Prior knowledge:
This protein is an alpha/beta fold. It contains 19 helices and twelve strands.
Amino acid sequence: MEMEIVKSDRPSDLSRLSSLPDETLVLILSNFCLHCRELRQEEPHATPLAFFPRNQHSWNSRDCHALHSMCRVSRRFLPVAQEILYHEFVPGYGDSWNGDYEFYWRLTPFLRTVTLRSDLAALVKRLYLDLNLLNPITNSEAKDALQKAARARGIRLSDFLRPYRDLLPPYHREEYYPSGDEMACMLLASLPNLKTLVFSAAAPFTAILSSSLRAARAESLSIQTLDLRGIDINFRARYDGILELASSTLATLNIDTCLRCRLTGFVRPFPKMRNVTITNSRLFESDFAALLSCCAGLETFTYECSGIPDTGPLGVDSPPNDAVVQLLRNKGTLKKLHLDTRPGRPTLTFGDGEFLARLIPKLREFLVLEDLFLDAKLIFCNTGQSSGRTSLLTSLLPSSIVSLKLAANTDPQMTINVSGCLLDLGRAVLQGRFPKLKRVRWDTKHQVDDCNMRVTFRKARVDFAYDSWPFSGGANRHKDESLGSSAISTTPETIDGETD
C-alpha cells in the first residue's frame, strides 16, 4: 500500500486527518512498515534476495518517505509516524541496491541518532546489514563515528576496539583501524529491543565479537529471528558472538546459500528455538548434528538442497535422512517438516534398504507432525522395484498428519509408484487410519487419469489435487513487483516536529 500526500487549499482536509484517534493513525501508517505488516501476517513487498529493477525507487524507500513526510507535516502526526518509522532500519532490503537511491551512507547518521536518542533506539525491531552498507565506510569515518557513539554510551572506546585489534597478528596491531564491522557491532549493542536481524552475503566482513558487545554494555541481545544469507566457511568466526548473546531469545533461524561452511559453531543450547529453515544449501551429517543438537523444542524444520554442485573441499553430500535422525529429539514438538532434494545433483542416490530402514520408522515417531513435504525420491530411492511397495507411504506417515505434499522430478516410474501408494493411503483413511488427514497434493508433472484414486479420496473426505512447488531457495525465491510511482526515498533519522 502506498499513501500519496496531496496538498489542498481546503484546511478541512488536514483537520479531518488530524482529528483521527491515534489507534486509527497507527493502523493506517503501519502499512508502510514491514515489521508491522508481518505482525499482521501480511505478505512483505520483498525479501532480501529478491531482484529489484535498476533505476527505480524501491518499496522500502517509498515506505520510509511516506513515514518521514508524516513526521514533518505536523506535530500532531510526529509521535505516531516516528514510532513506526523507527521500527526498522533496512536500507537496501529487497535487493534495492539496484534502485536509484544510494543507501551506503546511511549507517553513520543512524548510529549517531540511536546512540544519542535512547528512546528511538528502543523502538527499533528489525535491522538489515548488507556488505554494501559496511564496506564503503572509511577508517577515519568509522573511528569518528565510534568515538561519538562511545561518548554517548559512556564507555571507553579502547575497551570496545581491543578485541578487534587482537584479531590481528601482534606485528600488525599498531596499524589497526576500525571499519564497518565495528560500527555494526556498536549498533547492535545500542538496540535493546531488536527482534529481527538479517545479514546479506559476506556480512559482516570479519565478525561481530561478543567481548566487544559486552564492552559496549550489551550483556545480551534480544534477537528472536536471525537470517543469514550467503554464509561461507568462516561461519563460526562471523556469527558466534551474536549466537552467544542471543542464545536465550533466538526462536527462528533462517540460513540461505550455505555451500562451503560448516555449522559446527552451534555449540550452545537454544532453549527457545522453534523454527529452522535452510535453503539453497548443502549440509553434512555433522552439520545437522551440531545444529539440531542445540534445539529441543522445534516446531518447523525446512531443508532444501542446493542445485549448485559442491566444489568445496568438505567431502560428499549427506542425505537428509540424517536430519530426520537428529530431529528425533524434537519428536514431541515438530509440527511441520519440509525435506526437498530436487535441486540436488541428478547422481544423488541412497542405499535402498538402509535408507528406508532408517527413514520410515523414524518419521512415524513424530507424534504431532501435521504438515509434511517430501521429495518423492526419498521414499522411492530405487524406482526400478515397485512391486509390493504400495504400503510404503502409509507405513511412513504418523497418525497426526493433516497435510501431505509430494514433489518429484520427471520420472515415469515415479508416477506409477506414487499413484499406487496414494491409492493405498486413500483406502487406509477409509478404514479409519489417519483421521486428521485433510489435504494431499501430488506433483503436476506426474498427473494421471486415475478416477479410482480421486473417488477414493473423495469418499474419505480428503482434498486431493495436483500442485507444483518451484525451488524457493537463493535468488529465485522472490521477485519484487513494481509498486507504482513514488517520491524520493529517505531512511530514518532524528526528526524534530515542525509547526503546523
